[in-house]
Every structure is written in structure tokens, then in C-alpha cells.
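Recall the central idea of this unit: under ordinary conditions, the amino acid sequence of a chain determines the structure it adopts. In this exercise we apply that idea directly, starting from the sequence alone.
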Amino acid sequence: MPRMRSRFRTSAAAGRLLVAAGLAWLVVAALAGAGGATLALAADPSAAPSAAPASVGDPTAPIYVLTTTGVVDNVMAGYIEEGVHRAVEDDSPALVVKLNTPGGALDSTQRIVTSLLEAPIPTIVWVAPSGGRAASAGTFITLAANLAYMAPGTNIGAASPVGSGGEDLTGTIGEKVKNDAIANMRSIAEARGRNVDWAVSTVESAASAPASEAVAKGAVNGIAVSLEDVRRQADGQVVRVADHPVTVDLGDAPFEDLSMNPFQSVIHLLSDPNVAFILLTLGFYGLLFELQSPNFVTGILGAIALILAFIGFGSLPLNVAGLLLIGLAVILFLLEFTVTSHGLLAVGGLICFVLGAFTLYTAPGAPTAPDVSVAVPLIGVMVLLTIGWIALVTVTVTASRRRAHVFAGAYGAGGRTNVPLGIEAVAKSRVSPVGVVYALGEEWTARTESGADIEPGQHVRVVGQDGLTLLVEPESTD
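Accordingly, the structure predicted from this sequence is:
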């Protein structure tokens, strides 16, 4: 009996050992299976890192280059919008905007920024040429592109709103304008992965940076000396287009300039501060000539020039005080020829003209507004032309008055007529007794006192004048 109990214990122990061994085998198998599964997952192609993002557009299609120079206005905004649509239609691999601007209108800037942010193809802004800038509105536009490059010697920034006299904006309106501009700039910088702090500083403290500093601060992607340099640096870059990663594939795609159409070019030219100043001056002078010597031609041309000037002023920070000073100068010039002032009115007009030219434009009052002024050499040229014109008219008027005084006895009663007595004239028509004669470069109504008939082409002599009618007699043949 004890021997049977001993065998039973031995069998139970062996069973427990077998169960333990089986459990251990299952654990090892499970671990091995998990390891195999892990290895299999790692080897699965679907679990490997994804390939580089695909490109968009045809790498052999033309890369359109939009040259945007001058003040940002609705013409420039429409030009860039049309350029984006054209590039998309032609399946271009990218679009390049060559930018050089002092700033411009806020609504036009927003249109351009929206067009660049929503473009279905990669967009590139190249601030060029050397010496150019992307100021005020140009800062918003540059940062809104997928890739931004700057030529050596260019600068970017200074997008802080100030008052009409250049002072900082204060109060509720100032804070509203500034905060809105900061929010806009921040959203653009975040969307394009640029240095948000520096971008905001261009609005908060009017920060500006040359090309090298802008690259170092992460505001732009690099410095490019040419379009080919832009291609070399941009090719292969990964950007986000329509919120999807896209590889910029420029390859050997040719660059093709897409210029403004003639109408856009002319209208955009009017927004140049110097062109607008020239048109304003010519317009005032045209009206002045019309008042002095009515002929309709100078008046019409002057009115057209003024209208074109004010079209340009619509995109410029016009200072009404400067405009009024130039208008006052023209009035003083006009009075100089009718009032004896011994040149004082002309000197006062020149002073008003120079002051008006220097103050014609104000400091920018919005974050995108341009900081522009009339070129000093142009002011000098216009002043010299004005002095020459005043001198010419003054000499002519003085000579006319002196002649009337010297020949007062030969001019009708009191010297009020225009044709001296005794001069020779030629009959243009039959004078019998009334007809037309040619004297002093003009045609006059004439009549003979004696009633003699005068044939066309016959020479006569002026013997008197009755208002605007000359009294003539046939020239003696003796």
C-alpha cells in the first residue's frame, strides 16, 4: 500500500512537469510568433517610409515670369491673378513673380496674397533687380509665396502703419489697424513656414532687412542672382500646395516673360509718383495757356492730363496740401502776366511750386501703403522749365507793351489798335469797298475810304483802323 502511494506521487509530479513544460513551450512560441509578426511588419512595403511627394505641372511647360514693378494697385493685382490662371491652364510647373515695389493699396495687396496662397501650382517670388525692394505691401506678397528669393542688394520689410505725418498711430483706430496687420502677417508666415517673429516685427516695429539678413532670419529661402539661380535653388524643394506636399520640379522648363497688356501697362504707369506729378503740372499749364489764349486744344489736353494724374493719385498717398500749393503756384503765375508786381508774384509762385512738389505725397498711413516722393532731379527740371516759360512770356508781354507805348501815335486813338499805320498789306479778296486783307501774319476785314476797287493780290497800305476793320488804300505805283 505505501508502495502504491509512492508511485502515485511520482506520476503526479511528472504530470506537473509536463504541464509546466507545455506552458513554457507555448510562451516561447507566442513570443517567437510575435517577433516574427514584428519582423514581417517591418519588412512590409506598406509600413516603409513614403516616397517623395509628387510634383505638379509639366516640367517641359514654360515657367511664366511676371515682372511687377512700381506701386501695388488693382492693375498689378489683376495682372498676377491672370498670370496664375494662365500658368495653371498651360500646366506650368511653377510661377515666378519678379517683384520690386515700395508698397501699395491694401485691397490690391490682399488680392495678390490670396492668389498666391490659393494657387494650385508652386509660386516663387524673386525680389529683383539689385537695388530693388519689397517694402510694405511687398513684404506681405513675398512671404505669401511658396518660395522666396532675393537678389543681392535688395531689402524687405517696413510694413508698420503710421499717420499722415509719419507719426505712430495711437488710440483705438491705431490699435485696430496694427493688430489686423499683425494677424494677417502672422497667418501668412505660419502658412508658409517662415520666421513668424520677424514677420510680425515688420509691422510692430517697422523692421527691415537686407537680403543676407532676411535669409539668416528665415524670412526668405535664399539669395539668387538670376532666374537660373532661382531655378537651381528651387528645383527639388518640397512645398505645400493646396495643403498637400509637392516637390518643385522645374527641370529644363524654359522661362517665359508674361508681360502686361498695353492697356494695363499704361494704366499702371499712371501710378508712378513721378509720372503723376508730370501729368499734374502739364494739366495745370494747359489750363493756364487756355485762359491766356483760348484755343480749346491746350484746354482739352490740360484737362485730360489732370484726369490721368488723378487716376494715378488713386493708388498713391496724395497730400492735399501739396496739391493746393501747386494750384496756388499756377494762379500766381497767371496773375504775374496781368498784374504789375515786378516779378514778386512769379517768385512766390516758384516757391509754392517747389514746396508743393516736395509735399505732394504723405508718409504711408497703412501697413501696405507705399513710401514715395517726387524725384529731386525731376523737381529741378520742372522748376527750370517753369522759369524759362515765365521768362519767355514776360519778355513777350513786356515787348508788346513797350511797342504799344513807343508807337502810340501810329496806333489808333490811345494806342489801342494792333496794326501800326502805314504798313503794307495784301488783298486776299476783292475789296469793293469791303473785303479781306493779310497784314502782320493775320487776315483782317478791310475797306477803302475812297471807295476804290482793289483786286485780290494787290498791295495796299493801312491808313487807319476802325475797331477790327482796317482802312486801306491801294499802294501808289509811282
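The chain has 14 helices and 16 strands.
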